C-alpha cells in the first residue's frame, strides 16, 4: 500500500448547486472527475487530519465505485477514520444523525436525491459539515474555486474494501469502520416519538402503505415500521433499493408516486400513505382520497408539536423556504413564535437551527424536519404524522380539514418547465427582473399587483447575503407568484413557478380551479410560452 500523488487539470462547472454537485453518470465517470471534486473538498476545509468522516449514499448506480475511490482518497489525505454504511448505504438524514452523534469532522453523501438513477441517470456528491448539515455557501464556493485551480490529488493504491460485513479494517493509517446503516438513526427516532402509542395503533388495525420507491429508505422503513412498530409485513412496498430505482424518478410527489396515489384513491386505500425519495430526506403524506401539500404538512406539524414527546415543551420558532406557502406563518403567529423565510435549499436552515432560533422547518418540495438533525428527514415526518394520529385518533383528512377550519387554507401548486433551453430560461428571468419596477398597481383580471421584487436573504446569524433567490409578485389579496430556476437539474434549465393563494372561508375548492386565474397571469407576465417553447408545464405538483 502506498499513497500516490496524481497530476490533474480542472474540469469546468464543478459548482455545487442547491444540494451538492449533480451531473449525469457519464460526466462523473470521466477519469479524474470525481477525484478532482473530492480533493477540492478536502483542500477547502481545515483540521481534518486524524479526524473522522462519515460516508454513504443512496445506492444508485456508481455509488459503489465512488465509495471505494473516496475511501482511498480519505486515507491518502490523512483522515483518521471513516464510518461507512454497510454496502455503502446511508440515507441523507442518517448521515446527518451519525455526524452529530459521533461528533465527526464531517460527511460525504453520494446521491442525486430525487433525480433518476442508473447508467443513463444522474449521480451526485454532497459535503456536510460538523453540525451534520449541508456545507453553507461560503464552503461550497470555496470548493468550487479550488476545483477550478486544482493541480493534483492524493489517493492510496490499496485494494477495494469489502463493505458487506460490519466491522473494521485498516487502510494506510486510517481505520474504516463498516457500520449498520439503520441502527443509529432508528435509535434517534425512538427518542423523539411515542413508539408504544404507534405500535398500539397498528395492533388495533391501523393501516399504512409506505412506498420506498426502490430507494434508500427501504431498509430503514422495514426495520422501523414493520419490525419496531409492528406494522404488518408488506406495509413497506418497493422496499428493495435498486441502482436505477426501477426506472422511476424516486421523487415522492403525486406525479411520480402515481402507484401510491392510485392505491390511496382506490377502494383498498390504507389509513395513511407515505413515500420517500432517493436519499430519504423527502416525504409525501397521503390520506384516503387526499394528498397533504408539504406546506400544509409543515404547518400542521408545527401546530401540533406539543402532542409529540420530542417537542412536548413547544417550539421556539419555525422557518420555511421562500416559495413554500405561508400556511406555517399563521401557525407561528398564533403560537407567538418567529417565522423565518430562507432561500430554497436545506443549507440555509443550518445557522437558524444551530443558534436555536427555530425547532421545525420545511420546504414546499416535500421536505420537513427539525432540530434533531441538520437535514430534511422523510421517515421523521412520517413518524411525526403517525404519532399525531395515534394521539388524536383522527384521520389524515380530518386533521387537514380541522387545520384549515382554524387557520384558513393556502391553495398551493408548483409548475415545473423541465429541461428547457438555458438561454430561454435566463432570458425569461432577465426580462422579469427588468419589469419589477413597473408592475406595482397593474391590474390583471381580478388581481392587482401590490409589489414585486427579487428575494435576497441575509443570514441573521452570520450576516452572509445570498442574492437573486427568486422573483416574487405579490397581489393585494395576499396571493403570490414566485419564479425561480432550479439548482439541482443536470440537463438544460428548469423553470419553477409557484402559486400561493390564501382563503379564510372557501376551503373546498378544487386546487387548479382556485389557482387557474393566477396561472394565466403568470403565463402572461413572464411570457412563459415564448421563452420555454412549452404550452404547458412538464410537471404540476
Ligand atoms: C429542489 C427543491 C428544493 C430542495 C432541493 C434538494 O431544488 O426545490 O426545495 O431543497 O431540490 O432536494 P431546486 O433548486 O431544483 O428547486 V433533494 O431531496 O433533491 O436533495
Ligand atoms: Co432528497
UniProtKB/TrEMBL annotation:
Its EC number is 5.4.2.2. GO terms for cellular component: cytosol. One of its GO terms (molecular function) is magnesium ion binding. SUPFAM superfamilies: Phosphoglucomutase, C-terminal domain, Phosphoglucomutase, first 3 domains. It catalyses: alpha-D-glucose 1-phosphate = alpha-D-glucose 6-phosphate. Its cofactor is Mg(2+). Residues 14-152, 184-286, 295-407 form the Alpha-D-phosphohexomutase alpha/beta/alpha domain. One of its GO terms (biological process) is carbohydrate metabolic process. Keywords: Isomerase, Magnesium, Metal-binding, Phosphoprotein. Pfam families: PGM1_C_vert_fung, PGM_PMM_I, PGM_PMM_II, PGM_PMM_III. Belongs to the phosphohexose mutase family. This is phosphoglucomutase (alpha-D-glucose-1,6-bisphosphate-dependent). The lineage of its organism: Bacteria, Pseudomonadati, Pseudomonadota, Betaproteobacteria, Burkholderiales.
Amino acid at each position: 500500500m502506498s499513497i500516490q500523488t496524481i497530476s490533474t487539470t480542472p474540469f469546468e462547472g464543478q459548482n455545487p448547486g442547491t444540494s451538492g454537485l449533480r451531473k449525469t453518470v457519464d460526466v462523473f465517470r470521466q477519469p479524474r472527475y470525481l477525484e478532482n471534486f473530492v480533493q477540492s473538498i478536502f483542500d477547502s476545509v481545515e483540521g481534518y487530519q486524524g479526524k473522522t468522516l462519515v460516508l454513504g449514499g443512496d445506492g444508485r448506480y456508481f455509488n459503489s465505485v465512488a465509495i471505494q475511490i473516496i475511501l482511498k482518497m480519505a486515507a491518502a489525505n490523512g483522515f483518521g477514520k471513516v464510518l461507512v454504511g454497510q454496502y455503502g448505504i446511508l440515507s441523507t438524514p442518517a448521515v446527518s444523525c451519525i455526524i452529530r452523534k459521533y461528533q465527526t469532522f464531517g460527511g460525504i453523501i453520494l446521491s442525486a436525491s430525487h433525480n433518476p438513477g442508473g447508467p443513463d441517470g444522474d449521480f451526485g456528491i454532497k459535503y456536510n459539515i460538523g453540525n451534520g448539515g449541508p456545507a453553507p455557501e461560503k464552503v461550497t464556493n470555496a470548493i468550487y474555486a479550488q476545483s477550478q485551480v486544482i493541480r493534483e490529488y492524493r489517493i492510496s493504491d490499496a485494494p477495494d474494501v469489502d463493505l458487506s460485513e460490519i466491522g473494521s479494517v485498516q487502510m494506510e493509517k486510517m481505520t474504516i469502520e463498516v457500520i449498520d446503516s439503520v441502527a443509529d438513526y432508528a435509535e434517534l427516532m425512538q427518542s423523539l416519538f411515542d413508539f408504544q402509542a404507534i405500535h398500539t395503533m397498528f395492533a388495533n388495525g391501523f393501516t399504512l402503505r409506505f412506498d420506498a420507491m426502490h430507494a434508500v429508505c427501504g431498509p430503514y422503513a422495514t426495520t422501523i415500521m414493520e419490525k419496531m412498530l409492528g406494522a404488518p409485513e408488506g406495509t413497506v412496498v418497493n422496499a428493495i433499493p435498486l441502482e436505477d430505482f426501477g426506472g422511476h424518478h424516486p421523487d415522492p410527489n403525486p406525479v411520480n408516486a402515481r402507484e401510491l396515489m392510485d392505491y390511496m384513491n382506490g377502494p383498498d386505500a390504507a389509513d395513511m400513505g407515505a413515500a420517500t425519495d432517493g436519499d430519504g430526506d423527502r416525504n409525501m403524506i397521503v390520506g384516503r382520497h387526499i394528498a397533504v401539500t408539504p406546506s400544509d404538512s409543515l404547518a400542521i406539524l408545527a401546530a401540533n408539536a406539543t402532542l409529540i414527546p420530542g417537542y412536548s415543551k413547544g417550539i421556539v420558532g419555525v422557518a420555511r423556504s421562500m416559495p413554500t406557502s405561508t400556511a406555517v406563518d399563521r401557525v407561528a403567529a398564533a403560537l407567538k413564535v418567529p417565522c423565518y423565510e430562507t432561500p430554497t435549499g436545506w443549507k440555509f436552515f443550518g445557522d437558524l437551527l444551530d443558534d436555536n432560533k427555530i425547532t421545525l422547518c420545511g420546504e414546499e418540495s416535500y421536505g420537513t424536519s427539525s432540530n434533531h438533525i441538520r437535514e430534511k428527514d422523510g421517515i421523521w415526518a412520517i413518524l411525526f404524522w403517525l404519532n399525531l394520529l395515534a394521539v388524536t385518533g383522527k384521520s389524515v383528512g380530518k386533521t387537514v380539514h380541522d387545520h384549515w377550519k382554524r387557520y384558513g387554507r393556502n391553495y398551493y401548486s408548483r409548475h415545473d418547465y423541465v429541461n428547457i433551453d438555458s438561454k430561454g430560461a435566463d432570458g425569461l428571468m432577465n426580462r422579469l427582473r427588468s419589469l419589477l419596477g413597473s408592475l406595482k398597481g397593474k391590474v390583471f383580471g381580478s388581481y392587482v399587483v401590490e409589489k414585486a421584487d427579487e428575494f435576497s436573504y441575509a443570514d441573521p446569524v452570520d450576516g452572509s447575503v445570498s442574492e437573486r433567490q427568486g422573483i416574487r409578485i405579490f397581489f393585494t389579496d395576499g396571493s403570490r407568484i414566485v419564479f425561480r430556476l432550479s439548482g439541482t437539474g443536470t440537463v438544460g434549465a428548469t423553470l419553477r413557478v409557484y402559486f400561493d393563494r390564501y382563503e379564510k372561508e372557501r376551503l373546498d375548492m378544487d386546487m387548479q380551479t382556485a389557482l387557474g386565474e393566477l396561472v394565466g397571469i403568470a403565463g402572461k407576465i413572464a411570457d412563459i410560452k415564448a421563452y420555454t417553447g412549452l404550452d404547458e408545464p412538464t410537471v404540476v405538483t
